[in-house]
Amino acid sequence: MTVELEPDDVQAALGHLVHQFSESLVFLRELVQNSLDAGSPEIDIRCEFQPPEANGPDEADGPGGPDGPGGPGVSIIAVHDYGRGMDREIIDTRFTRLFHSSAEQDLEGFGHLGIGFVSVFALRPDAVCVDTSRGGENWRILFQRDQSFHCIPRDEPGVGTHIQIFRTAKESDHAAMVARAREVLTSWCRHCTAEIRFEGELINEPLDVDALCSVRHTGEDLEVVVGYPRDGRPFYGFYRHGLTIHETREGYSDGVVFKVDARSLSHTLSRDDVLHDDTFHRTMERVERLIQDDLPAMLLRRIEAQLQAAETEEPEETAETGETDETAETEEPDETLDRYYRIGAEVIGKRQGRWPRSSDGRVIFRTVHGRVVTVRELQESTDKGRVYFDETPSPLTEAMVDAGQLVVRAAESSAALHALGSWLGAPPRPAHAWFCKPVPARSDDEATHWVALRRATWRLVQGDDNPITEVEVAHFSREGNDHPQRAAITQSVFGELTAFASVKAVESIPPDDPCALVINADHPLVDPLFDLATAEPELALCLLLRLLGQQELLPPALEEVFTLRALAQRNRRLGETP
User: Fold this and answer.
1) What are 259's strand-pairing partners?
2) Domain of 377?
3) Residue 556 domain-assigned?
4) Is residue 73 domain-shared with residue 45, that is, in the same domain?
5) Into how many domains does the chain fold?
6) Euclidean distance between CA atoms 325 and 532, whole angstroms
7) For the segment 140-169, what is each residue's pLDDT rounded down to a tens digit?
8) E-strand stretches of 440-510
9) Quick one: three-class SS letters along 303-343?
10) Is the residue at 301 inside a domain?
């Protein structure tokens, strides 16, 4: 059967549809979509080049050509599916409808089948052959260069639909087309639900994202996977039956990657974006729930697993599948945990400190002494103002823990410290900058080195009308600690845990409430005074008094009294008259 056409009308109508395919080979995506809609479990795409000598004028299924050897040959692209195929009614009412009429209502009435096939003409083929079978009917539709067509009954039964596109081309152009076709199929069809083979090679990939951790929702008509990107760059993909509708790096939730495959998603008429209709918004509500609740909860599970793996030196396992986490296999555990903490700092920071639901019992840190810290404990200690950090355990941290303080294990400038600050909503407090637990000399030589300054100080304050009944020299911090500290403190009992903020000035202590004056041997301005005190104890003492006055441990009046007394002691020692 030959259908009579009005060529100008048909060409105008085709141009109206074909112009949207700026990349001519995108027609492969359209044909794959038609095959998926037809229920095909697999789709086979092959390319063939017939050199000039193989193109005789008697070729039945392809265009003949007058070119001799060395001239252009014929490039053939074949797309074969195993779906439901088409009978005569479908061919007339849907597949070739455009070629019967160019009426505007007909253009608007096209489904995926009609527009999908029209896309092959973006390649400007010389001929197109379509073999299809359904319900015992077998048909061949032959399209010429001018889009006129013949519908011919076939005797041979088939399965599904087999489309061949013929185009005159040089062999080099055919090779370039094959390479580009592979790129197009990989870009647009890699997540297809059916098996897609190109030149016999399977191109399908699971719907997944390159993320440090991710969560997935799978429903009857919807699959979503969201994660925190491994490279820190956002990415958002929308698919239907695994076919790419739109991929972008802008316009959605910062700091995440996601891919959405839903039957309800459609592309815009221009085919450069996903259609933002009601079904799209409902789908995105589900995506947002995953981003706001499930994904942060998964991050906490990963942090917990890494903390446990660091203690047992076993690979991390996911909470859902029990499979070994790939990141834990390719990175050191500490490095992976640091990356989780960096992400967590941003995530919880954006949530204004709000934790995911059902996360209270998750292990989020370890204390400086190795005990696990849950989200609930961290929150409770934060509310009471009892959260501090330190890198290594010490007598100070032991005393802080005994006093009910929470001391998290974290190093300066570490990812863990950054996360802790984000989750506290304030800069973390270093233990040694807020507390001290004076420690006596670590050796006899050190004690001897301190004697001169200690004795000079005691001679100055003893027997006076002040509460100081003891003078000691001690270490306030571990070696290498560079936090600024007090030059001295007062304590009710020497060696007890003391918060710097609670240190009382000498004048505020009742005379009948004895205290110890403890000099900080680790203070950078105190250390030189030990050597000076061996030759000039009173001068060393005057410098110490000045330092204590600057730090408001001594009021100006008392500092002046002590200074004059020290100078008088020096005069007496040297036998000089004031």
Assistant:
1) 225, 237
2) 360-429
3) yes
4) yes
5) 4
6) 61
7) 999 999 888 999 999 888 899 999 999 999
8) 468-474, 488-491, 498-499
9) HHHHHHHHHHCCCCECCCCCCECHHHHHCCHHHHHHHHHHH
10) no
